[in-house]
Every structure is written in structure tokens, then in C-alpha cells.
Design a protein that fits this description.
A two-stranded antiparallel sheet has the order 1-2. By secondary structure, the protein is mainly alpha-helical. It is elongated.
Length: about 150
């Protein structure tokens, strides 16, 4: 178990959210296959996608559906500030996800150079391979630079 502070996610992770009031401390049914008192999901290497799903499809509907009495003793200005910041975060997360889906594609090197590229010990590479790799590198640099220039 980790909160992610000291041990970073290296593959997939799970999250659990208890939806019942902490004061009630109602026991969670271990016998049932599905207990609505606990929400859970997976966080994968696609963390922004997972976070967007959790925030915009789980928490945002829950927060938007809160009734006045659900806020209990929370002052109105804190409620308004929380709602404003939460909405802004949810919106920025959706925008971040959009920018990630507009990926750039970088050309791979020709597979005919596979053996030569792996032969790192000799230090002797065919000059045509080096010229080709330099061309690919320059193309990558240009493509990435163009994408960054067009990004917000």
C-alpha cells in the first residue's frame, strides 16, 4: 500500500473511495460481490486519462449533486471557493487530456540497420547508417519543435 509520496507508481495501481460517512463507520460487506459503499478503480500508466475519469466521471457528479445539508457546517464562501477550484481543475484536466490525444508520430529507423545498431561494441558503423540516423534525428527534432510551437 502506498499513497504515492515515497513509492512511485511503476505499473498499475488501485484506488478505493469509501462513500459512507466516516462517523457512521458502517461495516463494509465482505460477503457481497458489489458494495456501493466502496468505489474502486485502476490507475494505469495512462495516469492523466485515469485521473480525468476519476475526477470528471466519479467525483464531479458527486460534488455537483451535493445538497445544501450535505455541506453541513461548511461556510458558503468556502463552498463557493472549493466548487470554483474543483470545476477549474476538472476543466483543465479535460484540456490536458485533449492535448495528449493529439500525439505526434515519429518515424522509426529502417529495420535493415537492426543488426548494425545493436553492434555497439565495435564502434564501427556504416557511414550510410549514420547519415540515415542523423536525418531521422533531425526530422524528430523538427517535428517535436513544431508541435511545441503550436502547443498552448
Amino acid at each position: 500500500m502506498s499513497d504515492g509520496e515515497k513509492v512511485k507508481l511503476k505499473g498499475k495501481g488501485l484506488y478505493f473511495v469509501r462513500t459512507t460517512e466516516p462517523d457512521s463507520m458502517k461495516d463494509i460487506s465482505k460477503a457481497a460481490g458489489n458494495d456501493n459503499d466502496v468505489l474502486f478503480g485502476e490507475v494505469s500508466q495512462h495516469t492523466v486519462t485515469s485521473l480525468n475519469t476519476v475526477i470528471n466521471q466519479v467525483y464531479k457528479p458527486l460534488v455537483d449533486g451535493l445538497q445544501i445539508e450535505d455541506w453541513d457546517k461548511c461556510p458558503d464562501e468556502q463552498k463557493a471557493e472549493f466548487s470554483s477550484v474543483f470545476d477549474k481543475f476538472a476543466s483543465e484536466l479535460r484540456e490536458a487530456l485533449k492535448s495528449l490525444t493529439q500525439n505526434i508520430t515519429l518515424d522509426a529507423y529502417d529495420r535493415k540497420w537492426e543488426n548494425e545498431a545493436k553492434n555497439q561494441h565495435s564502434g564501427k558503423y556504416p557511414p550510410e547508417m549514420l547519415v540515415e540516423f542523423q536525418r531521422i534525428f533531425n526530422t524528430w527534432s523538427e517535428t517535436i519543435s513544431d508541435a511545441l510551437d503550436k502547443a498552448d
